[in-house]
Queue: 4 jobs
Job 1
Amino acid sequence: MVPSSTTRVQVSGGSPDAPKTIEEDAALQWDMFTRHHALDGEWWGTWSTYDYMGDLEDTTAAGVSLQLAEDSDAVVHTHRILSSSTQSDCETCFSSSQLTTLPTIATYTPKTLSRRHRCAAVGMVVGPSVLKSGAMSTELVLRHGDGRVRVTFQHAPVWARGVEPGSCPPQGLKMFRAVVSKEKLRPRMEDTEGTIQGPPSAVEEKTSPPAPGNPRFFRPVPPFKWHAKWAGTSWTWGPQTGDRGWSIQEIDEADSWHGRQGDAAGVWSLRLPGGVLIQCPRVIVSGASGICRLAWMPEDDGEVGTLEDGNRAKLLRIEASVLALEPIISEDDDNMMVGFYPPTLGSLRTDILEKVGELEGASLEERAKAAEGYVWSVDDVSEEVAASEGTVDMMPQEAFRPQKKSAPIDEELKKKITADPRNALDF
C-alpha cells in the first residue's frame, strides 16, 4: 500500500530498499522489532474491550513483556495481569503480590517472527490469524517514545440473512470486538514482594508531565486538531514491492482519513480520548480486502512560554489490508470448494508525521454550512434593524437567525436554466 497519488510524496533518500532475500527481510524485521517493541521492561496498559456498538464491556490492567535474550537471538513473550486494584503507598504503584503471570505466550526468533508479525518503522501488525474459537484477529501497534497504542480487531464468521448458520461455509467475517490498550514502558520488577508501576494514569501525567518525545494519554483532543497540514515519512510494504520509504510533503484531503470517522458505510469506527482513532471493516468478505486502521496523536503543539515551546504536534498512522475467506478449489472439480486459505496480510503502511501548519481556506464549520447551501454571520443583520432598536441587547431574536442564501450559480448553469427551466432541478 503506497501513499495516494494525490498526496505529494517522493522516495526518501533513507529508503530501506526491498530486501533481496528471505534472510535479508528477516534481519530487517528483527531489527525493527527489537528496536521499537522488544525493549527492556514491560508495556503496562489498561486493556479496554469494546463491542460492536462501541460500548465499553470490560477493562483489565496488564503488562506485556517482550524480553530479549542475552544473545539477542530470541524474544520471550509473556503477560502479567493485575488481579487486584490494591495500591501501595505510591499513587501510581501496585503491590506486585496481586499479579498473575500467564504462561509464555510465544518465543520469537528471526526465522519465526514473520509468521504472524510484520513491522514497518514504528508500526507493527500481528496477524491476521485465526483463533481457536474460529474468529480472526488483527492487531495494530504504534510506538512513540516510552508509550504504545495497541488495538486488536476480532471478526467472527457470519452468514447472510435467511441462511442457517453452519449450513454452509461462512459467507463473511463480522467485527464483534475491539481491544484497545494505551501502554507505557515500565521497569521490570522480578521481586514479587515489591511494588510495580501499573498503567499510565491522569494523576501521573499531572504530577510528572511527560517530556517532549513521549506521549500524553490523558488530555482532551478536539476534532479540529486532526485537521492540519502534516508532513513526514511513510514506510510501505507489499508482497510484490517489498519495503519502501517515502517522504510525505503534504497529505491531501482524500488521504486524510484520520480526520474522518469512516470513508464508507461499511466502516466501523471509534474515536477515543487522548487522540486515538480506530477503524476496521464491519464485515470482511471473500474477494475484497478489508482495511484496518489506527491513528494516534501522541503530542500537541508545545505551549508558548513553556519548555515545550516550539515542539510541534505529532501524528502516527498505520493501516493494513486483510484478505480472508479465499476459497480452496478442489483439484478434481473446479466447482467444488474444499476449504479456505488462511487469512493473509495484503499490504502495510506506517506514517510518521509532524504538524507543519494550518489548513488554508474556509474552516470546517464554514465548509459544512456552505455545503448545506447557506452562509451567514452577524453582518447579515440589517443596519436598519440595529439602528431602530438602539442596542444589540434589544434587537429581536429573529435578527440573529441564520439568513439562508442560495449557493452561487455560475454563468453556464444560468444559461442552461434560461434555455430549459427543468435544468434547475439539478441545482
Job 2
Amino acid sequence: MKESFTLDQIRRFSLAVVVIGLIISISGAVRTGSIILSLGASAFVLARHSQVKVKRNIELILPIMICIMLFVLALSLPNAR
C-alpha cells in the first residue's frame, strides 16, 4: 500500500506550486497565475500550521483569508488574459 505524503513533502510541493503561479502571472496569464498562487499558498499555510507546536488561530485564519481574497479577486478580474 502506498504511504501518504509527509508534511515536508507537502510544503515543498506547495512552494513549487507558488513559484509556478508567480511565473505564470508574470508571463501574462494573471487570472490563472493568481488562482494557482492562492491554492499553493493556502496548502503551504495549512501544512505549516499543522507542524507548529503552539497553535494560534490568527496564524491560520489571517493567511487563509488572504488566499481566499486573492482567489475571489482573480475570479472577478474583468479582462484577465
Job 3
Amino acid sequence: MGEALNDNSEISVGDDQQQTAAYVFDMLIGLSSAARQTDLTFLAYLLEMAGSEASRVAEGKNSKGKSAPSPRAKRAAR
C-alpha cells in the first residue's frame, strides 16, 4: 500500500464555508476523474456524491437543498 500523504502545509481556502466547499468540489472532480479512468467505479461514485454535496454548499444551500442562512444572518441571530 502507498505511503499516506502527510502534508502539514496550510491550504489557503478562506474561512468561508462556501469558498471551502467550492475548493473541495474542484479537488473532488479531479479525484473522481482519476478514479473513473482507472476503473475504480464505486470510489468514483462516492467522490461524485461528495462533490454533489460540496457543490450544494458552495451555492449556499444546506444538505437538503434549501438555502442556508447567510453568515450575516447567523451573526445577527446570536
Job 4
Amino acid sequence: MKKNTNHFERLSQAQQAENALKEHKKRVGEVEYVAINERTTFEFPASLSKEEREIRIENYKKRHKPLV
C-alpha cells in the first residue's frame, strides 16, 4: 500500500511541474524558436528583440565551446 502512495505522490509532483510549466508559457506568451546547432534549439519570447537574442546566443556559445 505504501508503494502505491509513493507512486501517487510522484505522479502528483510530475503533474504539478507540468502545470507550472503550462502557466509559465501562458505568461510568456508567443515564442519563437532559434536553432543554435543540430542538437540545440532555444525558445525565446517573441517580444525579445533580435539584438537581445543574439547576445544570449553568443553568451551560450562562449560557455559551451565545442570539444575538438
